[in-house]
């Protein structure tokens, strides 16, 4: 098979690695890719949002399967474009990708179909949002309705912070048109868990659990980012929690989308919070999580091509997902100053250390190949993933591997997975 992967971050590198393990695949392309993906795939200089150009490329190269890693092209309708040309592609169509594309849509869906989530209101007017905040309970959560690179969520401890948040999202347009409409919802307390699920439009198959660390600084301080590290599995995602979610969250979410005429085929990512009143859905995404994919996919025993083919064929019930009886931890190496201002072009040293070491992985996110070598080319630069027989060993291994890599302005959190010490 020839496979095309759309995107160029750590998630897409993890997908490319997973695809490269399949004996069914002999050629991988990635658009646009990065310096790490280049070791597994032929990278082509087409942006993820050039939908027609990507479809032209898939036709020209006779691509057997395209896997979309990123949210933007899914929400823009890349699956519809490919399917109209008879091209096989894995991901939700535009009318189903709205599950991630609009927070207001997903909240309304959960309310209508009684899927447990936080109480909320939706606002198109900054004036009405501010009036609502005058009598609200704090802390409170503000969410940009549209896509905001995983950063459009503000947790506001006081009324003043919330008022500033409305200004940031709706008036200053920090996230562009994503903030034209906002969702204001109650603040829920509890541990967060990410569960990625394969979907075929009717059936849903949850993968192993993971937990992301969104904040830039240790102790969950600082600004929201695209993710500073993950671990898998989550010890807080018990059999009891899993059973509840299978009954009241996962299948009901699939059934709700089907009932709305929006059959969901692809990856449904559920961001859950385990409250004292039971698990609730914080958000949906319509693709693999980043960096969740960097700990979940290395633990998956199945051939990813078999699972994806089953999703596209509507035969997911024939698949039994299997994961290794171990653990994985991913620590993101970022450029200091991320997610605000940071410098690019710093030469990265030590990557060769990963070549011969089993159970250690380096997934490239913001990197570029130059005459000087591989250099930093983004805020999040690399995902350092390591396995271990348990989470403690995996965490120690990941931080050991973090020290192999050197570049100017290297920054990472030192407490990824530290919460497992409480188990």
From TrEMBL:
Gene: purD
Pathway listed: Purine metabolism; IMP biosynthesis via de novo pathway; N(1)-(5-phospho-D-ribosyl)glycinamide from 5-phospho-alpha-D-ribose 1-diphosphate: step 2/2
The protein's name in its UniProt record: Phosphoribosylamine--glycine ligase
EC nos: 6.3.4.13
Cofactor needs: Mg(2+); Mn(2+)
Lineage: Bacteria, Bacillati, Bacillota, Clostridia, Lachnospirales
SUPFAM superfamilies tied to this protein: Glutathione synthetase ATP-binding domain-like, PreATP-grasp domain, Rudiment single hybrid motif
Leader sequence residues: none
Family named by the database record: Belongs to the GARS family.
Domain ATP-grasp: 107-313
Reaction catalyzed: 5-phospho-beta-D-ribosylamine + glycine + ATP = N(1)-(5-phospho-beta-D-ribosyl)glycinamide + ADP + phosphate + H(+)
Example GO biological process: 'de novo' IMP biosynthetic process
């Amino acid at each position: 098979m020839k496979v095309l992967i759309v995107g160029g971050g750590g998630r897409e590198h993890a997908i490319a690695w997973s695809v490269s393990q399949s004996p069914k695949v002999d050629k991988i392309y990635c658009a646009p890719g990065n310096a790490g993906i280049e070791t597994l795939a032929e990278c082509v200089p087409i942006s993820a949002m050039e939908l027609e150009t990507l479809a032209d490329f898939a036709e020209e190269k006779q691509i057997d399967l395209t896997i979309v890693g990123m949210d933007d092209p899914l929400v823009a309708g890349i699956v519809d474009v490919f399917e109209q040309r008879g091209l096989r592609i894995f991901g939700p169509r535009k009318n189903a990708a709205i599950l991630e594309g609009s927070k207001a849509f997903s909240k309304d869906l959960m309310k209508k179909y009684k899927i447990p989530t936080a109480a909320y209101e939706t606002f198109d007017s900054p004036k009405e949002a501010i009036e609502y905040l005058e009598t609200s309970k704090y802390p409170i959560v503000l969410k940009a309705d549209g896509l905001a690179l995983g950063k459009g969520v503000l947790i506001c401890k006081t009324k003043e912070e919330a008022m500033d948040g409305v200004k940031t999202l709706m008036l200053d347009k920090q996230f562009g048109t994503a903030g034209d409409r906002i969702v204001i919802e109650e603040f829920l307390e509890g541990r967060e868990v990410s569960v990625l699920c394969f979907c075929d439009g009717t059936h849903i198959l949850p993968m192993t659990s993971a937990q992301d660390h969104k904040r830039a600084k240790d102790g969950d301080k600082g600004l929201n980012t695209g993710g500073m590290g993950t671990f898998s599995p989550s010890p807080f995602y018990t059999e009891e929690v899993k059973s509840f979610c299978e009954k009241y969250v996962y299948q009901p979410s699939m059934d709700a989308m089907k009932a709305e005429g929006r059959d969901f085929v692809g990856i449904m990512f559920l961001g859950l919070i385990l409250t004292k009143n039971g698990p609730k859905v914080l958000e949906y995404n319509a693709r693999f999580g980043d960096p969740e994919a960097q700990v979940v996919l290395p633990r998956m025993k199945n051939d990813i091509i078999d699972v994806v083919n089953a999703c596209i064929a509507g035969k997911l019930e024939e698949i039994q997902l299997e994961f290794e009886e171990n653990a994985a931890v991913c620590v993101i190496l970022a450029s200091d100053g991320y997610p605000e201002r940071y410098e690019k072009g710093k030469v990265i040293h030590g990557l060769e250390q990963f070549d011969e070491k089993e159970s250690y992985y380096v997934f490239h996110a913001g990197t570029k190949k130059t005459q000087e070598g591989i250099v930093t080319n983004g805020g999040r630069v690399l995902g350092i993933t390591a396995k271990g027989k348990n989470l403690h060993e995996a965490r120690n291994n990941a931080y050991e591997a973090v020290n192999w890599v050197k570049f100017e302005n290297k920054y990472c959190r030192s407490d990824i997975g530290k919460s497992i010490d409480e188990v």
